[in-house]
Design goal:
Blueprint (H helix, E strand, L loop, with lengths): L7 E7 L2 E6 L4 E5 L8 H21 L7 E13 L2 E14 L4 H21 L1 H8 L9
Antiparallel strand pairs: 1-2, 2-3, 4-5
Amino acid sequence: MGTDERRVVVERVGPGRFAVTNVRGGRISVGTGDDADFSPVELLLGAIGGCTSIDVDAVTSRRAPPDSFEVDVTANKVRDDGGNHLTDIEVTFRVAFPGGPEGDGARAVLPRIVEQSRDRLCTVSRTVELGTPVSPGIA
């Protein structure tokens, strides 16, 4: 098995505010959730929804472009003996395709590709489900 390293850099830009930058120069503001910036938990939910959306759109759009495409990702944040974590992560697709044979084809493949994304394609949700260890360190 090969590896294909991914990397972001998180930089403090103010009290409780950070910027996440990728190697291509993209930048996202992150905060505590007290303002419009995304919180880390919202970024995780967005990453799950974005990853599976990319998988599903790539396959269904080959048959027909969607009339509408929305994915709702929810979870409950709890604090228990395991520490702070999310439970009951749900990903709900609301996708509509045009009428006709192309739209019928996209509708027909939708359940299968949603399942495949969950079971093997979406790197983000697969990582969460498999429980990959996180190794903090100080340089």
